[in-house]
Amino acid sequence: MTTYTSMLPLSYMVPTFYPTLPGNVQPQGGAPLITLADPDLQARAQRLVNVLYWTAEQYKNQDGMTDPQTLKVFICPEFYFRKATVEEVRSGGFLPSTSFGSYPEEARYQLAEAIYQAVFTSPLFKHWTIVAGSICSALPIGPTGRMNLLNTAIMLRGQRPALDASVPYILMEKHYISDIDGPAKRAHANRDPTTVYSFRLNPDQFLDNLIYWDDMKVGLEVCLDHNKQVVRNAVNLIDQTLGPGACVLDMQLVTSCGMSIVDQAVAIADGALIMLTDGMSHLVDQLPEPIFQVGRYDAASGRTNLLDSDLFEFSELPGNPSYQVLDYAQGRYVAKGRRQGVWVSESRLALIEQA
């Protein structure tokens, strides 16, 4: 039996594909001050924490929000933490000179700890699970001059009456670089056999995508990894090793920038939920609002039945840089009237719905 019987999905709609400057971001809505050495990373972290506190207040009366058996799941899109220069913003693309918008490798841990402290210390986030998008970082350049890049998802738990023995937050590496990410695939750290991230040294590293906490088994993926069926392959490996049905996932989560739910990649129990939050908004003449999807898996058909968008409501964030990314696509996204905010289902959803 899991700790929770239902889930309340909270999807953060914000575009993340094009380079943006960090903006002048200040603590808002009771959010604590975030302090990080890198002012760019600090601003983006502060904005996310502001949005989290705003979401908790905005939806405080939502069905399931105060129910201890309802898990609140907040997902931010991939590439939320990606550094950019003025030149990159003007050109609309990331450059090799900045390691394609990367922070130093150690910034991943500093960021995760800063967000965790802001979340775990507040009772607002009791019974929350937060996927804080992903952060792009780079290993130090070695003698060969090779660029080794990482794209790391961060997943955190808010307060619990009593934490189990599992870690309070995790850092999970993306395994596959997409053609639209910017760098060549060979620049990925797991393609370098000398790094601890390499497939050669850690051939089963996709097992890292399986998270065990709150008496639940959860699969987490970043964008192209979902299309490559990373979570499903991990589940299949465990089943092949321990026996059929040894690993049955209670929930699957995807943070992405250019992905939608792929039926063949879903690896959850019959009647369970999968949730995806995307940050893709491209094509300068269109700049559509990023998508989100929540679906329930039907094992008999092998299909995921997506929940109708009419079952969700949207609240737009305050229109200032402490909450919104105002210069996305050099400000054209906002100029076109595209929104930034948070989607939530009108009512809690059963974690498992029997046919």
Outline the structure in words:
The chain has 355 residues and is of the alpha/beta class. The chain has helices at 39-58, 86-91, 107-120, 224-227, 230-242, 332-335, and strands at residues 6-13, 70-76, 103-104, 128-138, 149-157, 169-173, 210-213, 216-222, 249-256, 268-278, 292-298, 303-306, 312-316, 341-345, 349-350. Strands 1, 2, 3, 4, 5, 6, 13, 14 and 15 form a nine-stranded mixed beta sheet that branches. Strands 7-8-9-10-11-12 form a six-stranded mixed beta sheet. 17% of the residues lie in helices and 27% in strands. The model has no long low-confidence stretch (mean pLDDT 94). Helix 1 (39-58) packs parallel to helix 3. It has one domain (6-350): Nitrilase/N-carbamoyl-D-aminoacid amidohydrolase.
Give a brief outline of the structure.
The chain has 355 residues and is of the alpha/beta class. The protein is built from six helices and 15 strands. The strands form two sheets. Strands 1, 2, 3, 4, 5, 6, 13, 14 and 15 form a nine-stranded mixed β-sheet that branches. A six-stranded mixed β-sheet has the order 7-8-9-10-11-12.
